[in-house]
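Notes from hallway chat w/ T.B., transcribed later so I don't forget. T.B. wanted the structure written out for a chain they're using in a teaching module, and asked if we could keep both sequence and structure tokens in one place. Agreed to drop them here.
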Amino acid sequence: MLIQTVRTRFVIGAVMLLSIASGIGYGQMAASHTSTVALPPTKLMDSSSMLTTGKVVARVNGAGLTDRDLLREMFVLFPYAKQHNGGFPKGMESDIRHGAMKMIVFQELCYQEALRRKMTVTPARIAKVRSEIRADLKDPRAYQAFLDDQASGTEAGLRKRIERMLLIQDLIQIEVTQKSVLTPVQLRAYYKQNLEKFRLPAMVSFQSISVVPPPNSNSEVQADARKHAESLLKQAKAADSYEKFGLLAEKISDDDFRVNMGYRKPFDISKLPPSIADTLRSMKPGEVSGIVAIDGGYTILRLIELDSPTTRKFADVSSELQKNLGRQKQEELRAALNERLRAKSKVEEL
């Protein structure tokens, strides 16, 4: 459990940009570029429905990715596996495995591309990440178990894994993250072209006192309900404040809103029943309506506030737009990068 916790912290700190750009969690220290490193399985792996042996499950330009690499990524995609005794739901395991396979292949493609570009990572960056791991794992036994699980049991293996991970992160930063930032001009152009998305409907808030006869009532019961509503109308008209109307609603109203002083929180007026909406549109704040028939019952309304339709200002939505459009752009760029790297590589899923 401790190994899993520290591993997660390590990845979050070191590959945050990578995980954002990919759209899928890069939770593992990625698979070895060299041929398979036979890492002993963790307890979680031992108990999973997928046994690992270090067998190569994919090759990217000859570099082997193992079933251990695959399983680590599966645990990232489905972190609740530990709640299933280390296994995956039968109906989901195939999809999880497929997604994890695509992810470890993409990571390897990115790593090889970084090497091709002769990108480097300074020793200081590697040392910083290593120090963070060591600080989390103060117990020497826990630290060694982490090395055994993630880095073939050696400090050199750990440094290699950290370097690999940071190279992937740097490539994603260049090809995806940096290119996904939209300029103010682009954001404003999108805003102007999509004004309908930023229009807010007319919102209304009000209180109500309702008389609700039993379902499928006959005409006589309906008439009695109408008379009862008429008898309450004079009291409702005299309740000239939110508090007075609300206390009256708590005492005499039949609807569920009586427990909240008859208050209805702001709501899109166009989605209210026409008889209610039309009545509220004709009223002034603080005014009490007459009797309004609704769904076999009768209600008395007190308008609190009715806002006109508005359009959100660009200044109020620009940050939200940058985030949402940037995320969409990241997904497009990541997919394009994956396709571009695959096109010039030999990928074998075994």
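Follow-up for T.B.: The longest strand covers residues 297-306. Might be a good example for the class.
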